[in-house]
Amino acid sequence: MRATTRGWSVAVLTAAGLLGAVLWVLSPRTPPDRIDGAAASLVRALAERRAGFADASTGWEYAFPRDYGPHAGYQAELWGLNGSLVDGDGRRTGLRLRFARLGLAPPGRSRPSALAADAVMAAQLLLAGERDRTLQSAQRLGRIALGLAGASVDPTRVWLEGWTLEHAADGHLQVRAQMDGVDLDLRLRPGKAAVTAADAGLFDAVAAAGAAPGDAVLNGYLLPRLALEGELRIAGETRAVSGQAWLEHAWGTLPAGLAGTRGQLAVNRFALQ
Hints:
Elements: E1 4-6, H1 10-25, H2 32-47, E2 76-87, E3 92-103, E4 119-129, E5 135-143, E6 149-152, E7 156-160, E8 163-167, E9 173-179, E10 182-190, E11 195-196, H3 197-200, H4 204-208, E12 219-234, E13 237-252, E14 270-272
Antiparallel strand pairs: 1-14, 2-3, 2-13, 3-4, 4-5, 6-7, 7-8, 8-9, 9-10, 10-12, 11-12, 12-13
């Protein structure tokens, strides 16, 4: 099976992960008619504090496994895993696991307390059953302090409490996550090399549109073909699963104009696995 993506762009990655993380920061009790305005204000406030963070550039020199890890000098970073799990009875389950890091202040400052954080991590887990049409989801948010959440180079790992996405030394990925009645433990093996933003020419159209530097570009890549196997435990039943998945990883800066005047953002995305 061949995997292709269209429209894997700045707007897509920002909306799917970074703006989503901002929305998770909001209280679930926020009235629906106030969410747009509150999200816009928060995005705008973070974007206005981007001094000291690096701007993404089309001249990025990709190197792996280095770029599997975090890029702490950038204000925002997203890891997104999407896939399809199939058990021995042919039951199919859709999977989405996302981690988004949002920088509150440039790294490297001395902080008076171990509780102080320069960034927060938001994560979301979604499982969608094909036969019973169920949808299970959970969201988490934590400060990158005291080991509660973070991203590291050695080992190459991103985590929030018990949710982890890790690149092992032999090249495979390990994913672990839990929510009420659900325990997920997967091993993923890349079947194709990473496809970088530069490889795909993703920012040619952005440059043609005359967007300003720092507002226009995210660095990133896809691992488009991951063979997976592992276990999915639901309501006390453990299922051996296999399937296919793909991983997106991008890093950059929150543009000052992202939220607009009313917190509206248009997204167009198409992906085929």
